[in-house]
Each structure stands twice: as structure tokens, then as C-alpha cells.
């Protein structure tokens, strides 16, 4: 009913004393058991783990590909609609007098660093290069792989995967949690986003299950991101002279390389997480944003800037024109060569990406909510979806466009296209520069990559701890923060050692599915809450928590 105030008190049982003091044991303990079981299983019986995960992954991709495509389209449409509708767009995520805690630069830096920094360094070159060689337009015979007529199509697909739909997944969770936590004083944890549907039942078993699903999805989603980052970080260490002992002949990291990288990354990130959002994470985010602009400026000055700008404008126009169709296109295997190839491509790319962003959404969403109090829904959507998407588009066209242009004009030969995705950026720097200058730029990339890895990992550790602590935002339980730092290291290291990135991909796609249903329910709950709050305000009924 909209004639009475909404639920503004959700009790989540937490321990008063002992090792789990301040934590919801019904969430923290099962989460740790599930993650620990995955680690033990993957390391002790890798062949069995790989076989089971692959079988589950194949069945899920076959059965739920359409679900992933349609539900991500819903997330984007809902976020844009809430921002554009005057009544909802001006609603503040907080009380009327709340002001943002962070400056816009720090806010955007933390958001961008946590949400996409690592992937940007790896895929700004790798993804456009891959789609330049092959994409659905090539499969359907509309363009030619690795030819000039395929450049725009390559960027349409790159923009699709790293643009508006990706950030909408993050923004939806953050919007839902900020709305209910800061307007209604509910705990900053995932279950709060479902209170309009289930009410006080979210205090019990149903709420515990939702938060456990969010924790496991977060660990697997972040593990996927860190897995990509670890491979590129090790490749960078090899490039700056750490020796061949950290990489194998194919450029992939050795076991020793993985261990060294994870000790450095997760050790630093755990220390940063112990300091909280306002100190270590904020400082690192500002640093990596500054280094990112420096690297981008380098490619603007020394890369194929005019080619990249041309690809940006042509790709962006085509992307926005085709986005409504792309959001709802689902290809099914139909027994024909083209149909089967399109379905296989979509499962390996678009469906994989949607699962990745969904798995990453509880972490980034809680983090976005944590740093966005006091901003309006319209400002939040612009800052959390539109601006980061434009940043990704610029990166992909300036950096990736340089790689495509060098391949097209023959100056790179097959040096970039023939390298692994973790090494392509370093190969390109070696082609642009020479000697000591190439080494210096490679070292800067390694430092930038390390700051992104640490920012992502420490933010994830802090958010997992927040969910386990029933939404308590301040860093607490140092032993638990250290546990999640070690657990994240073991998940990444264990899956990389037993099956490489494919093992992490498989586990992540599986872990994302349950949370996709949670996110769908969050959409329904948010729409219900916004409509009813509008009615309450018109009728003079309290709709926000009034602090004493």
C-alpha cells in the first residue's frame, strides 16, 4: 500500500561476541565454505572439476543464452528510463540535505577503476583486433575479415560488450542499493534491494541466500577480471626484465609467475582494504586514473589518432543506430553453417560478457552505492553508465585503432595479431618506440596495471566484507578481510593453475546465473518502490527515513 510509509528497518541477525562479532554468521560462514570447497575441488581433483564445470557451462549456455541477452537489455532500458523521467530522475539517493562525499573526479576515478580498469588495459587492444578479424558481420558475409571494410563493424561489437549494457548491470545494483539504503535506512547489502517484494522476510533465510549468492558471484566475477590482469601483469614483468622463468614459451605465465604476481597484488590489496575506501582505495584510484590519462595521451600523440577518431565516430554512430536491434538479437544453432557459427560466436562473446558483468555487478554495485550517496538518479546514471562508456569507446578506438591501423598498413605485420591478448599492448609499444623509451612505457603500463589490480581486489574484499557484516560499511574484522584476500588469491591461482582462464570463465558463467535472477527481481522491486514513493509524496506520506 502507498498510503503508509515503506519498510525502513530491516534487522539482520549478527553475532554480538566472538570471532564473528558484528557479522551475519548465516552469510559469512556458508560463503566461506562454498568458496573454500571450490578451491579444494579445483586444486585436488582438477580433471573432475574441469569436466563437471564444462558440462554445466555447456548446458547453461544452451538453455539460458536468451535469458542473459534479454535480461541485460532490461537493465539498460530501466536505468535510462529512470534517469529520463523527470519525476524519478531528480530523486536523490539519500536524504534531501545529503551531499556527495567525494568530488566528481574521485567519484569517477573509483568507479572506473573498480568497474573496468583491468579489462580496459587488456581488451582495448585485444578485442578490436579480434573483431577486426572475425565478427557476426564477417560470418554473415557482410564484411571481410581483417580488411578495411570491417573496421566499423569491429567497433560496433567492441562497443556493445564494453558500453552501455555493461555499465547498466553495475548501475542497476548500485542504484537499487543506494535508493533503499540511503532513503530508507536499510542495510547496504544486496537483500535490501528486494524488500519491496518480500518485506521483513529478507531478514531471514531468503535474505541470507540472496547475500550468499552475491558473495559467491562477486568472488567468481572478480576472479575472472584478476585472471586476465594477472596474465598481462606477468607478461609485463617479463617485458621489463624479470626473466623468462615467469612465462612459458607461448607467453602464458608459469606457476611461479602466477604465485609471484598474486602475492604482490593481493598482499597490497589486502593492506589497502584494511585502510578503507576513503584512504587507500581513493588514493590508488586517483593514481591509476592519472596514469591512465597519461597512457591515453601517449597514444594520442604517437599512435594512429586520426584513424582512431574516424573509427570512434563511425563506430559510435553505427553502434547507437544498431543498439536497439543488437540488444534483442539471439542466434540459435539451426544446423546450418552460418546459424551454428553465429550461435557459437554469441555464446563465446556476448553471453559470456553479460554473465561476466552480472557476476561483477554485486561487487561494483555495492561499491557504487557506497560512494554515490547524495547524488540524483539522473546524475548517477550519467556518471555510472554514459561517461564510463564514452571513456571505454575512446580507449578502444585510440589504442585498439592504432593496432588495427598498424596491421592494415603493414607496419606491424602479424606481430600484434599473432601475440596473445596479454602481450599485444606491449608488442605495440615496442613497435612504436625503441630501446629505453619502449622499456619506460612498458614499466608505466606495469605500474598502471598493478594499481588497477590492487584497486579492484581491495574494493572487492571490502565489499564482500560489507555484505558479510550485514551492510556495515566501515572496515572491520581484520582477520576476515585477510581471509577474503587469501581466498581470492587461491581462487584465481587455483583455477589458473588447473585450467587457465577457461576454468575461471566457466566457473564465473555458472556463478552469475543465480544472481541474474536476483537482479531481475531488483528491477521489479525498484520500479515498485519508485512508483509508490511518488504516490506517497503526492499524498503527503513519509517516503524517506528521517534521521533523529
TrEMBL record:
Protein name: BCCT family transporter
Membrane topology: Multi-pass membrane protein
Subcellular location: Cell membrane
GO-annotated cellular components: plasma membrane
Ranges annotated as spanning the membrane: 67-85, 105-126, 159-182, 209-235, 255-277, 289-320, 351-369, 381-404, 431-454, 481-501, 507-531
Domain of life: Bacteria
Family: Belongs to the BCCT transporter (TC 2.A.15) family.
InterPro entries per UniProt: BCCT_transptr
Keyword set includes Transmembrane helix: yes
MF GO annotations: transmembrane transporter activity
Pfam family, one: BCCT
Keyword tags: Cell membrane, Membrane, Transmembrane, Transmembrane helix, Transport
Amino acid at each position: 500500500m502507498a498510503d503508509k510509509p515503506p519498510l525502513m528497518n530491516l534487522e539482520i541477525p549478527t553475532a554480538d561476541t566472538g570471532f564473528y562479532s558484528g557479522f551475519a554468521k548465516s552469510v559469512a560462514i556458508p560463503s566461506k565454505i562454498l568458496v573454500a570447497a571450490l578451491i579444494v575441488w579445483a586444486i585436488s581433483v582438477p580433471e573432475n572439476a574441469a569436466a563437471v564445470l564444462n558440462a554445466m557451462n555447456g548446458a547453461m549456455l544452451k538453455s539460458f543464452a536468451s535469458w542473459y541477452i534479454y535480461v541485460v537489455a532490461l537493465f539498460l532500458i530501466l536505468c535510462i528510463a529512470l534517469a529520463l523521467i523527470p519525476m524519478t530522475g531528480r530523486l536523490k539517493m539519500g536524504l534531501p540535505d545529503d551531499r556527495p562525499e567525494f568530488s566528481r573526479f574521485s567519484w569517477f576515478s573509483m568507479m572506473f577503476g573498480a568497474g573496468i580498469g583491468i579489462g580496459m588495459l587488456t581488451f582495448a587492444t585485444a578485442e578490436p583486433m579480434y573483431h577486426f578479424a572475425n565478427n557476426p558481420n564477417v560470418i554473415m558475409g557482410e564484411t571481410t575479415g581483417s580488411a578495411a571494410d570491417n573496421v566499423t563493424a569491429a567497433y560496433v561489437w567492441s562497443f556493445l560488450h564494453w558500453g552501455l549494457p555493461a555499465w547498466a548491470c553495475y548501475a542497476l545494483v548500485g542504484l537499487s542499493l543506494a535508493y533503499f539504503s540511503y532513503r530508507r535506512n536499510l542495510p547496504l547489502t544486496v537483500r535490501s534491494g528486494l524488500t519491496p517484494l518480500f518485506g521483513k522476510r529478507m531478514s531471514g533465510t531468503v535474505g541470507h541466500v540472496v547475500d550468499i549468492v552475491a558473495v559467491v558471484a562477486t568472488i567468481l566475477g572478480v576472479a575472472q577480471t584478476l585472471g586476465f590482469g594477472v596474465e598481462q601483469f606477468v607478461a609485463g614483468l617479463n617485458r621489463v626484465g624479470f626473466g623468462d622463468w615467469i612465462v612459458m614459451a607461448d607467453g602464458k605465465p608459469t606457476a611461479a609467475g602466477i604465485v609471484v604476481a598474486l602475492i604482490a597484488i593481493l598482499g597490497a590489496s589486502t593492506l589497502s582494504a584494511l585502510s578503507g575506501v576513503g584512504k587507500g582505495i581513493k588514493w590508488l584510484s586517483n593514481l591509476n586514473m592519472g596514469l591512465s590519462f597519461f597512457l591515453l595521451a601517449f597514444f594520442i600523440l604517437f599512435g594512429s589518432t586520426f584513424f582512431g577518431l574516424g573509427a570512434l565516430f563511425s563506430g559510435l554512430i553505427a553502434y547507437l543506430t544498431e543498439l536497439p536491434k543488437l540488444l534483442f538479437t539471439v542466434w540459435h544453432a539451426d544446423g546450418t553453417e552460418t546459424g551454428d557459427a553465429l550461435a557459437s560466436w554469441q555464446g563465446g562473446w556476448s553471453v559470456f560478457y553479460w554473465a561476466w558483468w552480472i557476476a561483477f555487478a554485486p561487487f561494483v554495485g555495492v561499491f557504487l552505492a557506497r560512494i554515490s550517496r547524495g547524488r540524483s538518479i539522473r546524475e548517477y546514471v550519467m556518471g555510472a553508465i554514459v561517461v564510463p562508456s564514452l571513456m571505454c569507446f575512446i580507449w578502444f578506438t585510440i589504442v585498439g585503432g592504432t593496432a588495427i591501423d598498424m596491421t592494415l598498413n603493414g607496419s606491424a605485420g602479424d606481430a600484434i595479431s599473432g601475440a596473445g591478448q596479454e602481450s599485444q599492448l606491449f608488442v605495440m609499444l615496442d613497435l612504436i618506440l625503441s630501446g629505453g623509451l619502449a622499456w619506460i612505457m612498458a614499466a608505466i603500463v606495469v605500474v598502471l596495471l598493478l594499481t588497477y589490480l590492487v584497486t579492484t581486489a581491495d574494493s572487492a574484499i571490502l565489499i564482500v566484507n560489507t555484505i558479510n557484516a550485514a551492510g556495515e560499511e566501515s572496515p572491520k574484522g581484520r582477520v576476515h578481510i585477510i581471509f577474503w584476500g587469501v581466498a581470492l588469491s587461491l581462487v584465481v591461482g587455483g583455477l589458473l593453475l588447473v585450467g587457465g582462464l577457461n576454468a575461471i570463465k566457466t566457473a564465473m558463467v555458472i556463478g552469475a546465473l543465480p544472481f541474474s535472477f536476483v537482479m531481475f527481481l531488483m528491477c521489479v522491486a525498484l520500479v515498485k518502490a519508485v512508483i509508490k514513493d511518488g504516490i506517497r509524496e503526492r499524498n503527503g506520506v513519509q517516503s524517506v527515513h528521517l534521521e533523529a
